[in-house]
Amino acid sequence: MKILLAGETFAATTSVATGGDVLTSATSINGAAAFNAALAAEGIAVTQIGGDRCAAEFPFDLDALAPYRAVVISDVGALTLLVTPDARAGRPGINRLDVLKAYVEAGGGLMLAGGYMGFQGMFGTARFYDTPVEDVLPVRCLPYSDGMEVPQGLHASILQPAHPILAGVDGPLPPILGMNKVDFRSDGSSRLLATCRHRGADWPLLAVRNHGRGRTVAWTTDIGPHWLSQDFLSWPLYGRLMANIMRWLADGD
């Protein structure tokens, strides 16, 4: 089984002043290293298009998405997919968020994952609110900054342990260190599998939806560090949980 992962790469530049001299260094980070390895161990092949390459390389049509049973969008904002090379040059072209919606309706699977550039985003810059991607999700994005840091850790409450995504995932989930706030789509179209309680409110952590012939998942925390704690990433069932999500997504019509 093949899935497509968009995002999860970061370029970091560091400047260090030593007296009157300033030294600058740059590094690239792949936040999906653990995710990719865990899925590979479960027999799921991941093709990753880093965030810096998504504008030019993310598929523009259904034919290019057809080899993939599911697509994961993680820590790459809507504008990166919307502002194509044609759009940047001032030419009309393809809206790839419309393409993703059509992909789901035709039977594909789509997961939107959390992070600083997930859902509406830590500073409101991910901008999936009021988009075709939001149309198919089991949650609605908030129209403002939605990220919350919780360094003491959040603990999930499992609401539907019999769901296939949670098969073999026994015991409590390890702590997470942050998540995006969203509204669960409580119109009967979706199922809420897990929540986290913070400051008196229960926020969706994992929700699923059948839409058209396909399926969607909202996972409102990271797929890797830093919101997924080291305890979560080293948890023996991390790979099983992520693989269960991918297999459930792939089992649409």
Rg to the nearest angstrom?
A: 18 Å
Look up the CATH topology.
Answer: Rossmann fold
Q: Helix count? A: 9
Percent of residues in beta strands? 35-45%
Ends apart, CA distance between termini: 16 Å
Fourth-level CATH superfamily: Class I glutamine amidotransferase (GATase) domain
Helix content: 10-25%
Number of domains: 1
SSE blueprint:
Blueprint: E1 2-7, E2 9-18, E3 21-30, H1 33-41, E4 45-49, H2 51-57, H3 62-65, E5 70-74, H4 78-82, H5 85-88, H6 96-105, E6 109-113, H7 132-136, E7 139-141, E8 147-154, E9 156-158, E10 176-180, E11 182-184, E12 190-198, E13 201-211, E14 214-219, H8 230-233, H9 238-250
Helix pairs in contact: 1-9
How would you describe this protein?
With 253 residues, the protein is α/β, with parallel strands linked by helices. The chain has one domain: Class I glutamine amidotransferase (GATase) domain (Rossmann fold). Helices cover 24% and strands 35% of the residues. The strands form four sheets. It has an eight-stranded mixed β-sheet, sandwiched between helices. Strands 2-3 form a two-stranded antiparallel ribbon. The longest helix is centred in the C-terminal third of the chain and has 13 residues, at 238-250.
